[in-house]
Amino acid sequence: MRALVIEDDDVLRQHIVDVLTQNGFAVDAAANGTDGRFMAEEYPTDVAIIDLGLPETPGIDIIRHARAAGREFPILILTARDGWQNKVEGLEAGADDYLVKPFHKEELLARLRALLRRSGGWAQAVLVSGPVALDTSAHTVAVDGQQVELTSYEFRVLEYLLTHAGKVISKTQLHEHLYAEDAERDSNVIEVFIRRLRSKLDPDGTLSPIATLRGAGYRWDLPRPNAE
Fold first, then answer.
1. What is the pTM of this model?
2. Which option is the CATH number for 2-119: 3.10.20.600, 3.30.460.10, 3.40.50.2300, 3.30.830.10?
3. 60-69 pLDDT tens trace
4. Could you tell me whether strands 217-220 and 210-213 are parallel, antiparallel, or unpaired per DSSP bridges?
5. Predicted confidence (pLDDT) per residue in 42-53, tens digit
6. Upstream peptide bond of 225 is cis (omega within 30 degrees of 0)
7. Spatial contact of 176 and 224, defined as CB atoms under 8 Å apart
8. CATH no. for 126-220
């Protein structure tokens, strides 16, 4: 998943970036409201963390402009203010949740994962589809109860496809949501990850969990019994 962090405090911003990177996110970051607004409107983003008290362009304005531009990714606002009015203003501008500074990294991760699950129509931390179970918190995958060892990027590809089960996802989309803006990208790497996932999840070829739609992309095809 690809996260956008807009926070003017250098130490806090880097801390958030480090926490998210260590937990499997690709991260873009901005230190001011002007850059943040551009990224929020233009970058492919799965979830955004936006501080309300930003220089140049306030966080509230970034949220309003992003929503007006049709950006639907979930937004978690950060605020050092305890007043309920600020939280309400942020939510009414289009944010989905809030976190008051200072906060524990575990709570930040839990809230982000919950937002991502809900945006994909999932109710639980463990995404169950057919015999496949992906635990978004523990970063584990099992098939028929047997653990399957995946690399970090294989897990990211599977999580994205499973979160958006039933939807056609192009290779370009997968690239954009797996890597930060300044990352180098190999045009063949997604095909390699898909091939590995098929081999590990479906070694005997009986499940066919990932369909290839020629010229369009990939689709997770197993049922979603615990989706909302």
1. 0.87
2. 3.40.50.2300
3. 999 999 999 9
4. antiparallel
5. 999 999 999 998
6. no
7. no
8. 1.10.10.10
